[in-house]
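Input/output pair, single chain:
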Amino acid sequence: MAGANSPQGRCPRRLVFCDPPFYDGRVVEKRAVVLLSGGVDSSTAAAIARSEGYALHALSFRYGQRHEREVEAASKVSSLLGAAHLVIGFDMRAIGGSALTDAIEVPKGRSASEIANGIPVTYVPARNTIFLSFALALAEKIESADIFFGANQLDYSGYPDCREEYVRAFETMANLATKAGVEGKSRIKIHTPLIRLTKAEIITKGLALGLDYALTWSCYDPTPDGLACGLCDSCQLRLRGFKEAGANDPIRYAR
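Output:
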């Protein structure tokens, strides 16, 4: 834990953070870009990055998704972690093809085996590739070689852009496509600290770091009065994760 006179004084004491590195008596700031949707996984990845001493530059998106709750959650988590927060807007409704950006019903009440098999209609075409491209641009601008991405390939909904082989392929491309990479000044690293963890393990890790999951949001289709539906794939994975972690989920559900 950082001491009372630590350079981390701007962050809440209850969060478990390490001090930034020191060289010749000077604090050397490690900058990291964090893709932050405001959900369990991205918020935990952000807390892990902060615990490793990175100064966080959180990046969120208004891309035409069904609701604003996740952007609001990302803002709250950013404040908790003392991160700079940039929200970029673009409209994927012009492309559509997903229950999150088009007039397609969000699946609800699916069984665990149904969730685990196939790519659901909540998959947004090429979304993570677009998000990571923005993160790469921001990383170049702030001269950071580190991008944190809360991808997970165990407890996930079958999204192809959450797999480890996808992340490594993007990382290879990033180092071929950037000025810093071509000039050999730095090598982009995409950190995926959750990639092989279960949802329960992710939640346990976040709780150990003092992350307040009441600030996060996971539901694809909240009720008009702002409650999580409890039935979409994302809600079910979240609820199961908290149950298996032996912890209470602090957000409110319609059922």
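The radius of gyration is 18 Å. Confidence is low (pLDDT under 50) at residues 1-14, 17-26.
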